[in-house]
Design a protein that fits this description.
This protein has about 350 residues and is of the alpha+beta class. The protein is about 20% helix and about 25% strand. A hairpin with a 3-residue loop joins strand 8 and strand 9.
């Protein structure tokens, strides 16, 4: 039976309860959702699925054989070098869609973020950049108009890294512009969407939801769902600024330790979930976080440090830092976003 789960795109099967797409045999004929999606939607159960990023690269390569418009979604909270994946595999016309704009402070300027994005070495096939919020409906009408303007066929691929908000954006577009009653499964865990899922928005547009490309160094891969709920921002971030002198240390929950090794008095502004606690601690006597992996980072000034999936920190002056975080979590530098 080649029947797909309407929530995640996995093929329904009743042979193996531990594999994606499982549904009891007595329910498979009438089922619209696999058991995993049903539990996510109705009970909030979060079950991780082990996936192979190589499978998603193959999907990107297949997209590249078409002439269809591609929406490449980027989480505004997590702009880093992994965005360059769009250069590696996709030559189609692309709209860069920066999602979750609602979590940034309202004072942040759209154009500054756009200009920072365009400093990445994108291919020439980027036709536009737009910031949106599926939660507040910000710029959704403008995005819809862009799609109609740039599309070369009815098919429009929705791509991006895991947790970039692809399924959430499609659900919002279905609500705004379609009579289709399909609703995709969304959750905070990576790899909620398992396979390609075609959703007819109207007679002129079919959105094709794709599995998120897995950032292997994103912190969401290494922490339990209970902690991930705290880490992922749910509302507008309230930035926290600390004035630090060398020799001082900050602790971010039990996930990050930052030691200011050398530099003049400096400003560290955290853009992080409001549910995460940042504390000043004594560098010498408080050893919390020192069991994490240490990385030495040199900041040139007016740069952000991105802890992939956890936060970004704006630092105004030159600094020599020791950063401790979970093993394999990515640490990136970039020109200040805000």
């Amino acid at each position: 039976m080649n029947k797909k789960c309407m929530g995640c795109g996995a093929y329904l099967q009743c042979e193996n309860k531990n594999e994606v797409g499982y549904i009891r045999e007595d329910k498979i004929l009438d089922a619209k959702l696999c058991e995993r999606c049903f539990k996510i939607i109705n009970y909030g159960e979060l079950n991780r699925v082990e996936t192979d990023s190589d499978e998603y690269i193959e999907i990107y390569k297949q997209i590249n054989k078409t002439n269809d418009l591609v929406l490449f979604l980027v989480d505004v909270f997590n702009i880093n070098d992994s965005i360059n994946i769009v250069n590696k595999y996709i030559d189609n016309n692309i709209i860069i869609v920066v999602t979750k704009y609602d979590i940034l402070p309202k004072s942040v300027n759209d154009n500054k973020i756009k200009s920072r994005l365009m400093e990445y070495n994108f291919n020439k096939n980027i036709v536009d950049v737009i910031l949106v919020s599926s939660k507040t409906n910000y710029n959704m009408d403008l995005l819809f108009n862009m799609i109609n303007n740039y599309k070369l066929s009815n098919n429009v691929y929705v791509t991006g890294n895991t947790n970039a908000g692809k399924s959430t954006l499609i659900n919002k577009m279905l609500k705004n512009y379609s009579d289709n009653d399909v609703k995709l499964t969304t959750s905070i865990l990576p790899s909620t969407t398992i396979n390609i899922n075609k959703i007819k928005l109207n007679k002129d547009i079919t959105l094709i939801d794709t599995p998120g490309f897995i950032e292997k160094d994103n912190i969401s891969n290494f922490i339990p769902a209970k902690i991930l709920k705290k880490v992922m921002p749910k509302s507008e971030i309230r930035p926290i600024t600390y004035q630090l002198e060398e020799g001082k240390t900050l602790l971010v929950d039990n996930l990050l330790r930052i030691e200011y090794v050398n530099g003049e008095k400096n400003s560290f502004t955290f853009y992080i979930s409001n549910d995460i606690i940042v504390s000043r601690i004594n560098t010498v006597t408080n050893k919390r976080g020192m069991d994490l992996k240490m990385t030495t980072v040199m900041v040139d000034g007016s740069q952000d440090i991105v802890i992939n999936g956890l936060c970004f920190i704006k630092i105004t002056k030159k600094a020599h830092l020791r950063i401790y975080t979970l093993n394999n979590v990515g640490i990136y530098k970039r020109k200040s976003l805000i």
